[in-house]
Amino acid sequence: MGGTKYRMREFAQYMAGVLNIPTDGGLKNLTKRSQRYAMYKVGPVLAVSHGIGIPSMTTLLQEVIKLLAYAKVANPIVFRLGTSGGLGIPAGSVVVSSWGLNGNLEKTHNIPILGKTRKFPSILDTRLSQEVHSLADPSDEFQTFLGGTMGADDFYRGQGRLDGPFCDYTEQDKLAYLTKLSEMGVRNIEMEAPALAAMLTEAGVRGGVVCVTFLDRLQGDQVTPSKATLTDWQNRPMILIGRYIEKYLKK
Ligand SMILES: O=P(O)(O)O[C@H]1O[C@H](CO)[C@@H](O)[C@H]1O
Ligand SMILES: O=c1cc[nH]c(=O)[nH]1
């Protein structure tokens, strides 16, 4: 899974290459007339887009969990291949998440159910995240880190940005917050990880979050690399996940 339709098409195409699966007739979007998400299948790999943020991602994830159950898929593994803002690491680095943190700095996904807020632990499979991290190669043109991921409910103030339309805190407040996150072991900020971790844990499905970082948030708020660079960087999580899937299928 990943935010955009384009990225998930690219991932499906990439996996076709890794697994040597011909796509002569072209990749088909399996969602047909539904225009909200896109879904491609290449051999045993399902690539699905999930949009921006927790409500969009969890709606899609629950549909996929049902789909996997109806299809009687044994031991599925779910990965999110995303983009994020890094904390104290070079832009273009990849972060393999070990846990998710919500905007209240709790390792839980909090959701109101029947009028009461319930909290679900957002821990990811440690062995899986360590194994994916171990597939980073010294010859890769990017660094890969293992660490916590904060999933905010907002791109601007929810991530401590100063460049949004609303701003009611100072640069000093922002840096104190980001430094606190960094000291807690958070390596990157995006908008889905705690919910994905919690929902997979509740479903008993193994999974992970692997995101490239578009900038170092300790250095600024604006995503400045060119579109071409960002498009290229989005392929980096695919490289690690491709290695994992290839290895897993050989076992
Ligand atoms: O790159 P994707 O997967 O879309 O993820 C990140 O990008 C979006 C914000 O621009 C959020 O969904 C965030 O989590
Ligand atoms: O800083 C960033 C970059 C990408 N996605 C996010 O949610 N935040």
TrEMBL record:
Substrate binds at Q159, R161. InterPro entries: Nucleoside_phosphorylase_d, Uridine_phosphorylase_euk. It holds the Pfam family PNP_UDP_1. One of its GO terms (molecular function) is uridine phosphorylase activity. GO terms for cellular component: cytosol. One of its GO terms (biological process) is uridine catabolic process. Residues 2-241 form the Nucleoside phosphorylase domain. Belongs to the PNP/UDP phosphorylase family. This is Nucleoside phosphorylase domain-containing protein.
